[in-house]
From TrEMBL, chains A, B:
Entry keyword DNA damage: no
UniProt-listed PROSITE patterns: HTH_ARSR_2
Entry-linked Gene3D superfamilies: Winged helix-like DNA-binding domain superfamily/Winged helix DNA-binding domain (1.10.10.10)
The protein, known as: Helix-turn-helix transcriptional regulator
Keywords, comma-separated and alphabetical: DNA-binding, Transcription, Transcription regulation
The keyword DNA repair belongs to this UniProt entry's keyword annotation: no
Pfam family, one: HTH_20
InterPro entries found in the cross-reference section: ArsR-like_HTH, HTH_ArsR_DNA-bd_dom, HTH_MetalResp_TranReg, WH-like_DNA-bd_sf, WH_DNA-bd_sf
SMART domains: HTH_ARSR (SM00418)
HTH arsR-type domain sequence ranges: 9-102
Amino acid sequence: MVHSAVLPSPPTDDIDVVDVMHALADPTRLTIVRQLLEGGEQACGGFDVRVSASTLSHHFKVLREAGVIDQREQGRHRMTSLRSTDLETRFPGLLTSVFGVVHA
Amino acid sequence: MVHSAVLPSPPTDDIDVVDVMHALADPTRLTIVRQLLEGGEQACGGFDVRVSASTLSHHFKVLREAGVIDQREQGRHRMTSLRSTDLETRFPGLLTSVFGVVHA
DNA sequence: CCTTCAGTTCGAAGATCATCTAACTGTTCG
DNA sequence: CGAACAGTTAGATGATCTTCGAACTGAAGG
């Protein structure tokens, strides 16, 4: 059975501004998002952050439940990507203003 | 003595993204900023929020120290204003994307 | 099959946070 | 002066957050 189970993340219209602000109010999570902006989809191990695996997993959950990232299973890896388009729809220009880069 | 003591708030270039995100990651503070965007400078008592005066004071401190608002003493009142221009300089488009309004 | 690997879940510890009441400071006005 | 007013500060409380190590799950590979 090929299950491409998408982990729970809110639909675009339900992305809440408080949740997004909270998700971005942490240096580690900000680093994660910045690396996703620069490098695109990555596996958990591909991030250059100095926290334990369990802490990193916690941060992914916060970002995912806020609607900032998406995660999909792929074999032994869990691929993480930024919901750039959805964020651009819900809060146009947010990524650009916060990270100083143009949304890809 | 006419003291127009400006309460401590960081210079524009030192406004930190984590502090700003954290400042905006609270419903009450978000309401405060929204009301400042709509109504301009206001005294503390002019805000329509359902928290005690001391809690409101706490939220102003968080917003001020993050660089989101400015406060100046005027007689018996403390006037609060949004640092729209500084925020626009530091994070262009942020207010617009978060609040869905054009920066005045 | 059994080991390794990628990542999560489960407590737990310590820090930070939002909120309140009570007491305080400083200003205005009668 | 003395009372009323605007807002802050202090201290406490309960909730939430970040972090970790240890144990777990599920997939890949020898």
